[in-house]
Amino acid sequence: MLFNSIDFAIFLPIVFVLYWFVTNSNLKTQNILIVAASYVFYGWWDWRFLSLILFSTLIDFSVGLRLKDEENQTKRKALLWLSIFVNLGFLGFFKYYNFFLDNFIAAFSFFGSEIKASSLNIILPVGISFYTFQTLSYTIDVYKKKLEPSKDFLAFSAFVSFFPQLVAGPIERASQLLPQFYNKRIFDYPLAVDGMRQILWGLFKKIVIADNCAKYANHIFNNSSDYSGSTLVLGALFFTFQIYGDFSGYSDIAIGTSRLFGFDLKQNFNFPYFSRDIAEFWRRWHISLSTWFRDYLYIPLGGSRGGIWMKVRNTFIIFIVSGFWHGANWTFIIWGALNAVYFLPLILTKRNRKNFEIVAHGKLLPNLKELSFMLLTFGLTVFAWIFFRAENIAHAVSILSEILSTSLFKFPEIGLDMNGLKTIFLIVIFLMIEWSGRDGQYAIQNKGSSWKPFYRYSYYYGIAFSIFLFGNFSDNQFIYFQF
To answer: Which tens digits make up the pLDDT trace of 325-344?
Structure first.
């Protein structure tokens, strides 16, 4: 079920009414409703994959209970590896089986040996990378005795399958989200209003920005051989705003929806395109995944405790793994490695932990130095997105070759018609709103809070009206569903 669909527009109010007006007197029935609604929400795509979520829930709940009473370290490790093997086994089969098979065959063919093997027609379960990492973090934290295992199977099931963030995050930690299923929720009107505002902004990002940009980005990338370097740059820019509007828009809708039900999810995007270096970018982009890799991979590998070589090695490992997490294609691995290369100057000069504060905080505009670093970081990010969006390495190389040719100085062949100019204008307005609201968790969180009600609600209704006026209602899926 898509957030930007009529189905969800009907589904959400029904669940909301049942949750607050029918089951609100009993915590258990609230959790039952959440699990039932979540399974309906996920099964809307393909009910067969509900068995994967249920099996993962059973395994990790059981492992958690066994770890609580098991003191033998060898047996504790065996339980941990059982959870890792089951979760990553499912993920590896559905997402990477054909990738490894094809590359295995290609490797042997390179050395003159032929292997006969057939790829499988595997359907990738929506959101499997997200809920797999969420349940894995629970088992790892219980194993490390950082978290008490859950004794409430219903609450744990609700934690694993919670529908707002089930298929594309944020990837929640059990220590933060699971306890919220243990406690009775009381309707909080200001929290619900804040949730509605965030949903509104998420829909604007997705329907107005991402889906309008997608029209041009998809056409240019899918027909890249027909266009000049200048048009390909324009296509890369459209994709840059498409993926941000699409993914951060999903996160906003997920977080806002959770607030309607009395839950607090972590911020997943913090205005990343205003970053002054690539380290700051990754502290602000897909925060739940970045911190997951930091806590469960980077730090166990040694983090920054060793010498320069260890820091460089660990940085490359987490970025390459992060790239591979995104999909079974060498383009994602190159994208991850490229971001690691961007990190090298910061690591070598020990400037990777410099920019934590809001850029130009309290000021209308950034100074020249801040603007220069923001544009440099943005340019590096756009360059990396070309690999992320390309169909394969050869496709990415052909695009970059054309961009680096003299055709870069031609007038773009597409994207600057009336609809294209309208999309660019919307991006500019979008950036202005994001910049003015960069001190909040999302751009319009604090916007208008001190205004008179007439002006405040006119502003919100204006955003809603712009969605219907400028939105692309082509029922476009969210990009990260494929990951």
So the answer is: 988 889 999 999 999 999 99
Q: Which two tokens stand for residue 343?
A: 């990190």
Q: Is the pTM of this model over 0.85?
A: yes
Residues taking part in catalysis:
326
pLDDT in tens, 106-163: 655 655 666 665 556 667 778 888 889 999 999 999 999 999 999 999 999 999 999 9
| Same domain membership, residue 156 and residue 195 | no
Mark whether 201 and 172 lie in a shared domain.
no
Task: Give the count of domains, the chain.
Answer: 2
Show the domain range for 435: 191-276+355-482
Stated as kind and residue range, the H or E segment containing 112 is none
Q: Which is nearest to 182 in space by CA: 153, 161, 205?
A: 153
Instruction: Give the C-alpha separation, 140 to 146, whole Å.
Output: 9
Closest C-alpha among 223, 214, 218, 295 to residue 247: 214
335: in domain: no
Shared domain check, 124 and 26: yes
Q: What pLDDT sits at residue 109?
A: 61
Q: Kindly tell me the burial class for residue 128, based on how many C-beta atoms sit within 10 Å of its own C-beta (0-12, 13-18, 19 or more).
A: buried
SS3 call for 319 = helix
User: Is 387 in the same domain as 473?
Assistant: yes
Pair 3, 250: CB distance under 8 Å: yes
Does one domain contain both 130 and 257? no
DSSP code of residue 440: S
Structure tokens at 17: 């009414």
Query: Which own/partner contact pairs does 76-82 have at CB distance under 8 Å and 24+ positions apart?
Result: 76/143, 79/143, 80/139, 80/140, 80/143
Whether 470 is covered by a domain: the verdict is yes
Query: Can you read off the two tokens belonging to residue 282?
Result: 């990754």
Same domain, 82 and 110: yes
Taken in order 123, 170, 154, 193, the sign of the CA dihedral is negative
Contact 56, 140 (CB under 8 A): no
Last residue of a domain, one of 187, 203, 233: 187
Q: Which residues contact 82 (CB under 8 A, 6 or more apart)?
A: 59, 63
E-only strand ranges, 427-470: none
Kindly state whether residues 196 and 179 are assigned to the same domain.
no
What is the rounded CA–CA span in Å between residue 204 and residue 257? 15
